[in-house]
Structure formats: C-alpha cells, structure tokens
Write a structure and sequence with these properties.
With 147 residues, this protein is α+β, with helices and mostly antiparallel strands. 32% of the residues lie in helices and 22% in strands. Bound molecules: tetrahydrodeoxyuridine (THU).
Amino acid sequence: MTDQELIERARDAALRAYAPYSAFSVGCAIESVDGEVVTGANMENACYRLGVCAEQSALTAAQHIFGLDKVARIAVAGGDGSGAELSGDVVCTPCGGCRQAILEAAQLSGRDIAILCASGDGSALERHTIGELIPFGFGTVNLLEIK
Ligand code: THU
C-alpha cells in the first residue's frame, strides 16, 4: 500500500470517530509487516478524560488482528469530520500518550515505526518515526532493570 493509500484509510476512519465534545475527528490506519491494515478513530465520553484517541483505538485492533510486534507503519489524520470527507489543513501528529503507546509496539519488535502525519484534507504530510517523536522514551527495559 502506498503512503497516500494508508493516509486515505486514516482519513476514512476519522469519519467514524465519535467526537461530539471536541468536534475534532482523528483517524488512524496501521499496517503490519505483512501488509494487513487495521483502523481506529477517537471515541469521546461525557466524562471527558475517558476519551480514547484514534491511535490507541487502532493499536488495540492491531494487537487483536496481527499482534503489536507486527506494526510497521502508521498513518494519522485529524480535522473536521462533519462533512462528506475529512477536512482541515493542519497536520495532526500523535499526542504524547499515543507516542508512548506506539513506542511499546516498537520496543516489542525492536523496529522503528514509520508515522505518516496528515492534515484532515490529506494535502499536507509530515513523515516521522516513533524514535524521532519520543526520544529517550520510558519502556520495558527500565522495568527489567529492577528485576
Ligand atoms: N486525539 C486523537 O485521537 N489522537 C491524537 O493523537 C490527538 C488527539 C483526539 C482526542 C480528542 O478526542 C480529540 O482528538 C481532541 O483532542
């Protein structure tokens, strides 16, 4: 799948977000090393802090379908999901909590993970890796040190 196709999957997933409080729809598409793709979107709650981000929603699906250790590439797109397609021209990068969740997958496999960050309308794109987005991250290795 091309980068643009994976971004389109993320943009499409954003249209199935449940985001009545922020009105900001985020979609995430995750591709496995074998080319399988799962998607997720943010799901908010009247108890605001219980909202789930798109990346964490898609990571849960990834674990269920092919395993966190198989995550190879992630696309994220966020914007206004009220129309027929996702809109907005500001690039959406994963929040800090989602970076930590993606780092878990990277540490599990020992591979860096490519992250395609797109604007809602898909016109703007930033390419990152999880290593760049969360340097000096906390992970399994820290916990193993005390055993
Ligand atoms: N959101 C995500 O789904 N992923 C991110 O990385 C950034 C923020 C969601 C959470 C909330 O539902 C809405 O966007 C506004 O913060």
